């Protein structure tokens, strides 16, 4: 946009400069025509008899001109120039006509009363010339009329007054057409170049947004300016390394699972031969706990590396079905929200995350209320319970894997400390956020915000 604006200003500025230069050249032509006409008229009248002078004056007179011969000049003696044009006319006519007496040529410029007078010029033509008076810009915007008085050889005075101060003609149609075509071509090409340069960045932003939601965008083609190509290359490399890291970790955990399940099974068989019943039960319980932790760990890793594709889902129906399932099992759960709300998500993994959260709320809080609403920047799911809540200093730590509050989540309850971690991992894979807070009236509030 900045490139287009600067190009437009450049063309408009060039047009203004061209118009200003065009006006200067036109005013120079006007002045040259005036000097040529007065000079020619003086040379013709110098040696002509009265009858010939009348014919010459009649021939030269035109609308806007008042030309006559009299015994006295219409103008008084020369005084300091009020306008640069006065000095220019006086100096050039004296040179062209060979007039030595400065008072034999008098020039006055009549200025429009509504406009400010031009700059004063020295009365001494030599000094004015040295100061650059003749090089003053010829501006006739404020000139209403020009009066010139020239003394002829016989002492008579030629009094010449003209109001034909022409303005430059309007812009030629072809010039305007060429400027218009140039403007369209430059602006169009600027937009094309800017669009081409920004398209790669837009694709990169979209890919980063999708990758942040846990999707697997295809490798971006490296095109555009050098800096953009390097940025895209770095993004592609980062994406490949992350995929390789997740795959390596999944294979490592699968191998660990395979290697650990065998000794656990062996220990279980050996525990059956323990004669002390109490010791046998405690050993079997410990082995069951180890197996549960192992299963939860593998499930947690699978959720982080899940390749489920996002699709349009009725989020309201998904949440309502979870609420109904927990209510059917005897939980005190109610739903509040719209009957239909379409969102793009991975429904299987999101269902598991919400199920973990609602299950925790029912188990440790009771009186659960699930709210679903749509906001300008996404969808919000809020799960409130009426339990004891969580100490403020523990709100962040309970989201860490395997961290449990022993006072309320002992191993006898079957918890492994991964429920909240799994839920947060799934929400982050959707590009959303999961936050915990204690309600002022008591209980815990879990807020999930999913982007558009």
From TrEMBL:
PROSITE patterns, A to Z: HAMP (PS50885), HIS_KIN (PS50109)
Keyword Secreted annotated: no
Stretches of the chain forming a coiled coil according to its record: none
EC number: 2.7.13.3
Pfam families (UniProt xref): HAMP, HATPase_c, HisKA
Enzyme class, first EC level, given as a word: transferase
UniProt key word Cell membrane: yes
Name this protein carries in UniProt: histidine kinase
Source organism: Imhoffiella purpurea
Lineage: Bacteria, Pseudomonadati, Pseudomonadota, Gammaproteobacteria, Chromatiales
